[in-house]
Structures are given as C-alpha cells and as structure tokens.
Amino acid sequence: MKKIRVMAMAMAAGAMLLTGCHGAKANKAFEIPESFDENKQIQITFWAKNDTNVVQSRIYAQAIEDFEKLYPNITVNLRLYTDYGKIYNDVITNISTGTTPDVCITYPDHIATYLTGNNVVVPLDDLMADARYGLGGSELKYDSPGKEEIVTEFLDEGIIGESHYALPFMRSTEACYVNETYVEKLGFTLPEVLTWDFMWEVAEAATEKNDDGTYKVNGQNVMIPVIYKSTDNMLITMLRQEGAPYTDSDGNALLFNDETKDILKTVAQHTETGAFSTFKISGYPANFLNAGQCIFAIDSTAGSTWMGSKAPLLDIAPDKVVDFETKVLPVPQYNASDLKMISQGPSLCIFNKKDPQQVLASWMFAQYLLTNEVQIAYSKTEGYIPVTTKAQNSPEYQEYLAKEGEDNSEHYDVKIEAVKLLMDNTKNTFVTEVFNGSASVRDAAGQLIENVTKSVRRKKTVDDSFIEAQYKEVKSLYHLDQKSAGGASGEKKDLGPLPGASKALLTVLVLAWALIGLVAFRKYNKKK
What we know:
Structural class: alpha/beta
Oligomer: single chain
C-alpha cells in the first residue's frame, strides 16, 4: 500500500505540473530603490551597433570612460554588433537563460517581442519621472536633459501599449540622393518636392540606349535609374502617403490590400524596363550613384556620408567615381503639399534584473547617452540628428551645421543637408504601430517588393493572380495568417483557468495511471 500511495502522490504532482503549464508565474517587477548605493560594485553590459565605424566605437568607449569616472563603482562592459538583427536574435536567445544585456540599442519593433517575456524589459515612465534619478534628476552627476528637452515625436516612438519602454538614442529618416547633373542632361528640372510620377518619368527616360548598347545618359553599359535600399520602408511609406492601411493597434496585418496591389504593379512595370531595382538584388545604391550608374538613390540619411562624388566614405575605386551635383530631397511623394516620411533610428531599452541597484545603474548609464557630449559627438559621425532639443540648439551643434561644405569629412555638405532635411521635417515624420509581431509585418512588406522585382527579372508575369499568390505565400512565411495573442502592448494575455474538458481529461489520465499502477502492484504480489 505504501508503494501505491507514493505512486498516487507522484501522479498528483504530475497533474499539478500539467495544470501549472497553463500560465507562467511573473518575474518580480522592478521598483526604484530609495537611493543609489555608490559603495556597491556593479557591472552592467551594453550591447550596441556601430556599422564598423571606428569613430562611433571611440565615442562609445569615451562615454563609458567618462561615465565610470562619475560613478567608479559601476563597470560598463561594451559588446559591439554590426547588425541590429543579430542583437535582436541574441536577446531573444538570452531571455530564456536570464542572460540578457542590461542596456541595449534596438528598435521598438524588437522590444515588443522582448515584452512577451514576463517583466523582461523595464517600463521607463516611473524612472523618467523620478525627481532624483529621472530625466534631469537632482541626484545625477551629469547634465541630463529634462523630459521636455527630448523631441516629443522621438520620445513617443518608445511607447508600446500604455508605457514607455524605450529612450530614443539617434534619429534619421530616408532621403532621395539625386544626380542632378543627369536629371538636367535628360531635359528635366528637379522640383523642390520630388513626386513618384516625376521620378518614374525621368527614370524611364534614362533607360534609353545608344546603338552600341550603352546608355545615352552616361555612356556606360550599366544604368539603374532608381535603387531603393529598404524595400520594407518603401511599401510602408507609399501606403502611408496614400492613406492606405498597413497595420492597426490590435496587431492585425492589413497591408495585403488593393493599394498594395497597385504599388506592386507599378514596381513590376518599372522593373521590366530596367528603371528600378533594390539593394538586395543589385547592391548598395551609393555605389551605383557614385559611379554614375544610378540617378535616384533612396537610402537613410544616416548613410549620407557614402553619397555623392566627394563622399568621405566610398566602396568603389576612386577612378570609378563620376563627378556630378548631388541633391538631397525627401523621398518621393504622392502629394507634394502633404509630405510623409518615415522616422527611424536606434533606441535604448533597459532589461530587468534581480538586483534593483543594477537596473538603476543601467538606467543612469542609458540616460547619460542623452547628454550633449554623447549626442553631438555621435550625430557628427553620420547623418543622424540628436534626439534632444538641448543638443540641437546648443552653440556647438549650431556651429557644426553652419560649417556645411567647409570640408568633405566632418562638414561634408551632403551629410549636413540630410541632417537639415530631417530637422526641417520632423513634424512630417511618422512611425508604424508597434506590437509583438510588428517586425514580421515589416519584413513581409519588404518581401513583397523583393519578390515582385525578382519575378519580373525572371520574366514572370505580375498580374492579379500572381499578387494574390504572393499574398498567401508571404502571409504563411511570416505567420501573418495567425492573430498575435499579444496585441499592441506585446504583453501576454491572461488565459484564465483551464477549461472543464481539459480538467476532466487530466483527471482521467491520473486515474488511468493509478489503475495501471494498482494492477501492476497486484500482479507483482501474486507472483511473489
């Protein structure tokens, strides 16, 4: 009988484990300590991206060194990545083992997925508002910006659901870098606001060839008039400009619509004539632009240091560079009087840990990255702009802008024009809804453009039936035919108690195993 009791207890425990799998126990939420303990040695890890830019690496190192001088008890360990996707994958992998970084440069789309874990990412609202250690806090040993000194549009991008989960670090947008020399050679005059119709008209004119097969506009064997770097941004921006749906706040993917179908047909039309291609298919827009093999190169303002015949950064041999006038314009628009351009750029998030002092130290370091010293230094490396009005309006930054064109390095005119483009159009920028799965919707948008472009180059016909088949394929590829359980907040829904049928099934299983054990025990006794 003792064996039967032991077996029954084990089975009951198994049933409890089965029922316990229905919901997960939440980790303890972070609470701000009464004070920061400067006598306690604390180590934090910081994962960042730097595009293999040595200057950016030095800025990170200098920021860490300066911060550690202010707080000798905090050690910041830096880990550099060259790709945001790799940061995202490593964070996801480390959530299950509790080894996430303390501070991470990332995107809100990625944070929404991190939030599917229980109290993995720290909400920042209480920290930002804390009088002692919050934005502009009295106990901080550095000149932190106040909340009102962070550009509102950029700060609001970190809201997921009802809370802030990210601080903006740098911001950029997309720009169209135009070879104005070739536009005028083709008989056109650039407007102040570029439209899709104008760009396509010029692009088609640029596909005309000489009798020997070279292109008339450049005399070369290669000419791709329009190259778009980020095709996900391309479709998202075009849909926003047309007022067409993309996603909603409930996490529904709405981009598989008639407006998208029309856009894809336009892409197919200009791909067929050789007027359009993408970065994934042909290569970096800057390389073709600088070689005189592209007229409209659409890329991030953060990539402006690569654009133009006098660009400080080049990926092609100097003897391949063609001399031309570079014009920096907003991305093409459907309505020239109602500009819409995407806001992008890295943000900072803080990960929850068992030790509240460690989390507070992480927050203080993340906040230090918003000081003028770091913001201005980093923004000068590429076409980013500082996320605080405090830095933007500082004498040092204004002097930097005023020296546009004085040299082809720090004050490279194309880079500063790209910076001013975003500063002048901050109110015209937009962001998309963020939820668990929003990164997949973004990938799907780009995949549609890429698939259509590749298919045309393979001589396939892009019609309604083809596009409908693409919709089905891409939905399945990114699991967009399955509604996200997280909603816009990225938080797990309370699944409630087990249904009665499930409870009954578990009870039957326990009883069945008990009877099997009882029969086995009786056979054992009888044999004995």
